[in-house]
Amino acid sequence: MREYHKQVLLGLKFLLSRGLPLVLVSAAAAGVFLLKTPDSAKQASAPGARDPNATVGQYEGKSEAEIQAELDKVVQEGMFNISINPDIRMTSGRAEAELRVENIPANHHLMSVTLSRDDTGEVLYASGLIEPGYHIQAVPLETVLPGGSYTATALFTAYDLETEQPAGQAAARVRITVAK
């Protein structure tokens, strides 16, 4: 039994003298690696995490002209141009009103327009959806207007081309003159 204890003690001595330091050095190296790994690398690996190394703005080396071109493109895509006749003249209250509503080809939205009297709120005309590149020249109004002058508001609503969901609104004041 003594011989067995001797062998165990020799094995332990070998392990303590050679194996344990190797284990400790390996553990220390792993600890140092983890401590030295930037938090940004740890955070960026989490699903949905924002990369803390990302910087606001355009990447370095872009010219002012390239940056301006990109900004102009973003603005252009978000623009909604409206066009309507600001001075609608009618020969009688039953005549067609020359609205000249245009959804210009550069618009990236469908549009509709509702024309309402300012004094009463009464809707005089409501269009359906108008594709970019299309226009409405003249239409009969929903109400026969007596001779006179009226102010009205044309409310334009922009719609997403794909979903047809409302994307924004713009308004323009117009004058309607009906001959007496």
Explain what you see:
- The protein is an alpha+beta fold and 180 residues long.
- Helix content is 31%, strand content 29%.
- It has helices at residues 2-36, 39-44, 64-78, and strands spanning 87-90, 96-97, 101-103, 109-117, 123-126, 134-136, 139-140, 148-160, 166-178.
- It has a five-stranded mixed sheet, with no helix packed on it.
- A hairpin with a 5-residue loop joins strand 4 and strand 5.
- The relative contact order is 0.13.
Q: Which tags fit this structure?
A:
180 residues; two-stranded antiparallel sheet
Summarize the structure.
Helices cover 31% and strands 29% of the residues. It is an alpha+beta fold and 180 residues long.
What layout of secondary structure does this protein have?
Elements: H1 2-36, H2 39-44, H3 64-78, E1 87-90, E2 96-97, E3 101-103, E4 109-117, E5 123-126, E6 134-136, E7 139-140, E8 148-160, E9 166-178
Parallel strand pairs: 1-9
Antiparallel strand pairs: 2-7, 3-6, 4-5, 4-8, 8-9
